[in-house]
Amino acid sequence: MNKGIIIRKYWAIVIILLLLPFFLYFILQILPTHDDWVSTTSPDFNPLWIKERFLFYGYHWRPFDAVIGYINGLNPQELFPSFNHYVVVIGHTICVLMIFKMLTVLKFNHTAVNIATLYCFIAPATMATVTAVDSMNQTYALIFDIIAFLFYIKKNRMRYIGWIMMIIIAAWWKENGLMWALICPILAYGFEFIDRKTLKKDLIIGVGIMITYALAIYLLPKQIIIHPEYVPDVFKIIKNFCKFFFTTFITVDYIYLLHQPSKNILLAAITFLFSVPFVYVVFIRNIPIFKSKKIICTIICLLIAVGPHLFTVYSMMHTYAGMALLAILIAYSVNYYYHKKSVLLSFILFFFVALCIDAHLIHASIQSGKVGKRMAIEAIHETLTPVKDTYVIIIEDDYPKLSSFCVIPNEAFGWGIAARYETNYQWPVTIQDTTIERSVDASIQARQLGREILSKKQSECIWIIDHENVEVIK
Length: 474
Prior knowledge:
This protein is mainly alpha-helical. Helices cover about 60% and strands about 5% of the residues. A four-stranded mixed beta sheet has the order 2-1-3-4, sandwiched between helices.
């Protein structure tokens, strides 16, 4: 096979491998913020981590997250969050390579496969996952789900064993990995790998897998606590559907459009206009061809993939769950589009604007992390000497946030955990926190509360957090 044929077949992979070092270089500069500090992948020093986190934790059963947390706990200053970023970015790369393989198996042409694959790698819709510290569960769940599908469509007796094993491993990364127990038969039926009789039989098996998994969680010796945010209601579901449509099918610089302090409608409009030609060519102009059984089944699978998030909590990072199905929609459209030059030109425009948006999102994430680090260093410096117990009083901050890109300062500070990190988790040993309402005399109230806590010897030190400002009382 000569070089020309190789490049024509694999040009997306070549571009991905060229971009990968740049992605890694900048993403490695992103520091933990918000729930990164308390996730299961953060440094874990619990000697009973296997019993208390590997088997079950809170309302999650994510053993691989627990393993990563244990590894980070061996040397947090060296490993956290760099180790997490390597795992996520490499996982994202493997994931898009698996998408390339899946699209090839589905017999799309080279142009369609390459465009859809590269789209999934650089799409701003993936950046909330790719830039996050604790999002490896999403990337690897999708990897094993795609492998499950590739096992499922094989013509041998072992395919059911491979399918079921991969689904379980995906679910151990993240619970929504279970959804491919239903997606695999439906997608295979849409692309003529199985007939209707097999579809009905295997959907019953898929439901059985999900019930078995749920029963296993129920029988684990741990109290299951459902977070209030995960309780569905009609308004939340409608709102989540709108978020899903926006983040999945519309490309725009989210920061310029949605983050109030950074809002710039002109720049947001420019990023949107550059991406419109590709969206028009792929989705709007080709609407008539989307009536096929293949596309109807793919759209059903896309809704199933993001379903757990639509009915609970949906944010920008949850778009990732549907990326493999979105890739199929794109590849199908490009595959049947006769004017290849129009597709390529529109995709080139999308490619460059996507890189610009990605750069902006990554930069904002880096800056948010730096704010938390600066506050942590200030708290340690002002405290002067190590203390065992600290009480953090947060004055409610009305500063706008946007996903994990633009984080509220006190959340970047991690309610004081960022300061523990700066001391290599040596001190403070325990941190308590409370939030008081923002008002004209909120600072006075915070100091009064702090003095009361100190007088009652409930803590050795008080950290008052007012936006980016840290005040220490000892």
